[in-house]
Amino acid sequence: MSEGHFRRLSPPGEAALSLWEIRGEAGLASRLGLPEAFPGRPRRVRLRDADGTLLDEGVLLVLEEGRAGLWRAELHLHGGEGVAASLRRCLREAGLEEEAPPADPDRCRFWRARSSLDARTALAVLRGRVDPALAALAGGPAPAGEEARRWRRRLRWGRLLEQPPRVVLAGPPNAGKSTLFNAWLREERVTVSPWPGTTRDPVRARFLLPLEGEDLEIELVDTAGLGAACDPLDRAAAEAACREIEGAWRVLWVLDASSEPAPELAARVAARGPGDRLLWNRADLGLRPGTPEGPERPDFTGAGGRRPQELLPALEDWLRGELGPPPGPEEPVPRGEDRLRRLARLLGEPDPGDRG
Fold first, then answer.
1. Is there a contact between 200 and 224 (Cβ–Cβ < 8 Å)?
2. Is 9 helix (H, G, I), strand (E, B) or coil?
3. pLDDT tens-digit profile of 144-156?
4. Are residues 354 and 248 in contact, defined by beta-carbon separation less than 8 angstroms?
5. How far apart, in whole angstroms, are the C-alpha atoms of residue 145 and residue 142?
6. Is the distance from CB of 190 to CB of 182 less than 8 angstroms?
7. Nearest to 335 by CA among 166, 159, 165, 164
């Protein structure tokens, strides 16, 4: 007969922290070597196996004790796979059975959050602050005026949080895209070379953009150079870059001011979206016409001897301006595809998937 049950509440895999629930009869804590703790008061614990080996240090939070002889607690530990394996072995040896983790997408969304804004809005859903607001909206007259604008803004932010905004670096070979990509991530993620074709496949990485005391996860994409490509590999790389551009939230066009862009590329830059921006690199070597119609003033300029890190404050200000103010702590931001679609229908908005 089982002495109790346990289950992992946080998503599987490596993480900074992991959360476990343990349930059993009164007295289970002492059999597991856990100290006494008052319900609702977290206590720091050292978890050991049967021979006294230290498994991990964490926090024990007793949720129930004494009600019909039931003891229920949460154990907060580090999230390494070694800790998880050791805990499972320890609890199974003590006679506990593991239950399947809860299939709760809202809980998983909260535990997988990578930015403070993502975590805050996901937690509001878990605490029941969003569904009642959506139900009230559905049960009343169609929103109009300022109320409709507020809800459209929340819908937009919900979409941005479900799929981090994708910012694509595009332009000709050797214009400085990969150097800027590495500088933005503050690590050497991609190879920088004076030879064309060094970057062929799109390279993705994510970073946190500071946003009014919080942060938001942004996906940054480095792409292959666009230009007059004859080699089949070059053509395939350019086609992949174009697909990234088409699916981007915003595009930063990075051009070399010391050389004339190919006509097809210049036409693409001239037809860029209203939220996209143009960066002239090596502007100290002579500004060139950027479009077939004539010279075009860039939004940002980089000099040949200027470090790319010096451009980051202005570039991040651009992204913050495109995003607008984040939702306040009391605003009900819908999370999850079902809620987003429901709100879009109530507002008469198109389905998620546009560039925002």
1. yes
2. coil
3. 999 999 999 999 9
4. no
5. 10
6. yes
7. 159
CA 175, CA 256: separation in Å to the nearest integer? 5
Six-digit token string for 133:
């607001």
Asked if the model's pLDDT at residue 292 lies above 50, the reply is no
Q: Going by C-beta distance under 8 Å and a sequence separation of 6 or more, which residues neighbour residue 269?
A: 253, 255, 261, 278, 290, 291, 296
Beta carbons of 130 and 339 less than 8 angstroms apart: yes
Least confident range of 180-189, 249-258, 299-308: 299-308
Q: Where are the alpha helices (DSSP H) in the chain?
A: 28-31, 81-93, 105-111, 116-126, 131-139, 145-162, 177-185, 232-246, 263-270, 312-323, 337-347
What is the value of pTM for the model shown?
0.72
Taken in order of first residue, the domains within the chain and their CATH numbers are 4-103 (3.30.1360.120), 107-162+326-347 (no CATH), 166-323 (3.40.50.300)
Phi, psi torsion values for 272, nearest 5 degrees? -65, 160
